[in-house]
Amino acid sequence: MKIGMSLTSSYPVDQDSAQIMANLIEEVRLMAELGFDSFSLGDHHLTSNHYLQVLPTMSSLSPISGRMRLLPLFLLPFYNPILLAEQLATLDVISGGKTTVIAGLGYDPAAFTAFQTTQSARVSRFVETLEIMKLLWEGDAVTYQGRHYSIDVPVEMNPKPISRPLPTWIAGGAVPAIERAAKMADGWVIAPGSTPKTAKEGIAEYKGALEKLGRDVADMSIVLRRDAHLSPMSAAGHREAQTLLENGYRGFGATELEESLVVGGPDDCIKYLEEMQSAGVTEVLFRCALDERELALQTITTIGKEVIPHFRR
Questions:
Q1: What is the value of pTM for the model shown?
Q2: CB within 8 A of 292, min separation 6: which ones?
Q3: What CATH number does domain 2-166 carry, 3.90.320.10, 3.40.50.300, 3.20.20.70, 3.20.20.30?
Q4: Which residues contact 148 (CB under 8 A, 6 or more apart)?
Q5: Which of 217, 290, 309, 312 is the most buried (most CB within 10 A)?
């Protein structure tokens, strides 16, 4: 099992934005030193918090990322496919061929309004954007006819990504999203709030969809996103995470808080991951559930020193 981090890039506006970036640099350097496999950054717009945008942030972090893969997440309905294809190809060149794109739909009504599109069109825009990007990454003299985009005169894009084809994963929990992942991408990303039962049901759905398409699950990534708080000692980890259970966390319900958050110590985490690995998960992306500086670094360090070595034996 590969283990990476989904780093937090959203912080209150009363925090110094330059310090937020400095903290991300510290985290990526630490993760590279500890042998993490990857790191991801999310994609949100017009937020009341500071939100460091994914492409420039990830590009600036690439030189210190060591051997880690870069996993930028983009909400495809908001982007021009030609521009995004060029930018992601360049990111893959910058990273030395270590980029995998995570594609999502988006859900914030205000963002759809601001980008002058609609939620009702988000699936068709998503599909067309991904189709056009893949054509541009993989060939020349590209033309395309769609509902939202038409390329009537053949075009080409250079430089191409180093990784050809450039790997893509699709995130989403609904059955249509799982089916799109099986058809269009190289992996499926499971939502952080999915319980183990829901995740296992989704994995079965994904494997079934792959089989119908004649695609081999062994060639695909099944990626579990989990929010976590860990300490070297289980009791301390549970005690520190108690605030999440008492005050709520990211809209999780009681079942999600109990079953989807990974809290405690290394053994608790390893047991959880072994169960999900046996269900078919190939990679996990952790996010620090407590983003206070020392506690976030504690979680990253505990995963790096105690959890990752277990899965490298």
A1: 0.96
A2: none
A3: 3.20.20.30
A4: 121, 124, 125, 128
A5: 290
